Amino acid sequence: MTTARLWLTLGAACGFLTVSLGAFGAHGLKGRIPADLIANWGTAANYLGMHGAAILACGLLLLLRPQAPLIRAAAWCFLIGVSLFSGSLFLMALTDVRMLGIVTPFGGVALLAGWALLAVGAWRAAAPAN
């Protein structure tokens, strides 16, 4: 599987999960878990969707520049970051194990790294060839 195809597929999967988990949180969890955990669920779903779109953007850039290592690194950071950030919040909401919140900032740092890598990688990928 090409790198671009992988990231386009994973970005689309994140979009699917965003809609399905967002709907589950809004309809399936309402009244079953405390309001603060519902808010955490919503934050997790929002970040999943936003970074799913970022992963799609990485995939599209990789179609144009398949050998762009910073774009690939950004996509990995987004995937790891959203897994840790959103994943910990989803699990915390479902289990009420508040200690899972310790993991969330590590995901946030990975997401920040992804945005920085995407900015530099996009700048370099868009530079005219000599």
TrEMBL record:
It holds the Pfam family DUF423. It is found in: Membrane. Keywords: Membrane, Transmembrane, Transmembrane helix. InterPro entries: DUF423 (IPR006696). It comes from the Bacteria. Belongs to the UPF0382 family. This is DUF423 domain-containing protein. It comes from Thiorhodococcus fuscus.
